[in-house]
Every structure is written in structure tokens, then in C-alpha cells.
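Researcher: Please predict.
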Amino acid sequence: MPPNQAIQWFQQHVRITAVVTVLLLAALLAVLVFLAAIGPTADKPFTGFTSVKCTYNGQAVVFLDNDGDGVQQADEPGIAGVKLTVKHMVPLYLDNGTPQVRVSDATGHITFDSDRNCSVGDTLIISFTLPDGYSAVTPLTFGPYAIPNLTTEQPGTPLLTIPSVISVGLRQK
């Protein structure tokens, strides 16, 4: 191939490559705009296609675990002021909105609930913040608890299956 033909061939292919690159970038931009339109928000999950109300009601108790067995006994008082955080996560464990934060009352009890929109694949993670002057006897993070698969046998609201009461035992340092 003579040099002039090689140069023309090269220039033509560079133009084709540039056009293809522009088209691919335009397609990528369209996908990003679409994804931004469908989520994520607290009311509109990232997946956006199979959104349902998911409800749960949970309870937790934080107590001074004197004997270290992880079970609250009559002589083990509740601990007030311990922070519980409930985070909704979309697939790949991306944060889905503002977490729910609760604080234990004078008896160490905490209640939490939700009726927000969720999608199949969303999960719930429950964690406690260790207060100063304490060490953990039991785990401080629970989950992930998954949204159940939706089938025709499950119309309506799926319920997350979480423990009826989450117990967190702490010891004073």
C-alpha cells in the first residue's frame, strides 16, 4: 500500500473511531440519566422496578451484662442512652437513604419500625454504638436481614424477619 493510501486509510479509521466513541459516550450518559431518575431515595429504591412496602417492627434491649452470658438477668439493669442505627442497603451494600437512629430509654429498651419502600435484594443492618466506659459482651452489629423474594403467592407487604428482641450485653471497663 502506497504511503498516501495508508495515511488516508488511517485518517478514515480515526474518524470512524471518534464517531463510535461519541455514540458510546452518549449511550452511557442516557443510562446514567435513567438511573438517576429511578433512584436511589428513601421512597424509591435503586432497583426501581419491583418496589413494595416492606414493614418491620423491632425491639432491642441494652443491659449491663455482669456475668457475661449475653442474657439479661433480673439483677442486670438496662443502660440508657445507647444509640441504635438501622440502615437500609441496596444490592452491593450501597446505602439507601437516611438511617433510622434510636436511643435506649432509662430501662435500656429501644423500639424501631418502618413502612418504607424496598425492593427485592435490599437488606437491613442494625448496629449499636458502644458508649464510652463500656466494652461489648455480645455483637454490636446484626444482619444483614434480606427482603424476601416476591412471588405470586406473596402479594402485598413482605415482612422482614428479624429477631423479636435483639439483646446487647455490655460491661463496664
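Model: Residues 38-49, 150-156 have pLDDT under 50 and may be disordered.
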